């Protein structure tokens, strides 16, 4: 599996940093990890940082949209940040930016979700 997942809680926001490739080989693993972290913690909001994500396919989109629905059902907000050109193109073509904001970095994402300290 060529994907690393790093998670950090900041107040009631789960920040998830993905490194490597989010594809059909890694999507189920990421989905399970995120769902467990969201259900276990006091998570209201979710920020996905793609700073070190080199590749994503439609399976990755499914992971993102599923977590978006889960966070929305809890009354929370979700954002993505640090997106490279290739991943940006996929997210843009999918229409993802019509339902969730994109930010340049984690700090801006936290500010945009109004969860800064």
From TrEMBL:
Every STAS domain range: 3-113
Pfam families assigned to the protein according to its UniProt record, in alphabetical order: STAS
InterPro entries: Anti-sigma_ant, Anti-sigma_F_ant, STAS_dom, STAS_dom_sf
Keywords recorded for this protein, A-Z: Phosphoprotein, Sporulation
Protein family per UniProt: Belongs to the anti-sigma-factor antagonist family.
Entry function: In the phosphorylated form it could act as an anti-anti-sigma factor that counteracts SpoIIAB and thus releases sigma f from inhibition.
Protein name (record): Anti-sigma F factor antagonist
Organism whose genome encodes this protein: Paenibacillus cookii
Gene designation: spoIIAA
